[in-house]
Write a structure and sequence with these properties.
alpha/beta
């Protein structure tokens, strides 16, 4: 696992430790992490702070040129909201830890020219499978079931 996906996984584990959904993300610009985040819907009572959104928020306002040079690493396939933010900011590449437990809008991202690499990382899969099995009510709330 590369250092950036490891950082996203560390964020996911941090979120789990806080009582939240274990999804983490990092925004990387020119080989440097400029934003880290994890799902904080439970912790902060937020309707929108998924891992990707939290990483974008924590990166702060960036010029459009910066986003166009970024790669977003996320432990789970991005949902429609997070995919919309990826498209809005023109992020050209997304590296996904896994999409077995949840398939987000990867087809839409690819359709719109975003490079999407899916790793099917065993640690990411195990983390989500365990969470979904042990906390189905929280998972179902988060994905709108």
């Amino acid at each position: 696992m590369d250092e950036f996906m490891q950082a996203a996984l560390d964020e996911a584990r941090k979120g789990l430790g806080e009582g939240g959904v274990p999804i983490g993300s990092v925004l990387v610009h020119r080989g440097r992490i400029i934003g880290r985040g994890h799902n904080q819907r439970q912790q902060r009572g937020s309707a929108v702070l998924h891992g990707e959104m939290d990483a974008l928020e924590n990166a702060g306002r960036q010029p459009a040129a910066v986003y166009r040079e970024c790669t977003l690493y996320t432990t789970l396939s991005p949902c429609p909201m997070c995919s919309g933010a990826i498209l809005l900011y023109g992020i050209p590449r997304v590296v996904v830890g896994e999409n077995r437990t949840f398939m987000g809008e990867e087809a839409l991202l690819r359709e719109r020219g975003v490079t999407v690499d899916v790793l099917q990382d065993p640690d990411c899969i195990d983390l989500m499978e365990t969470f979904i099995r042990t906390s189905p009510e929280v998972w179902n709330e988060d994905i709108g079931e």
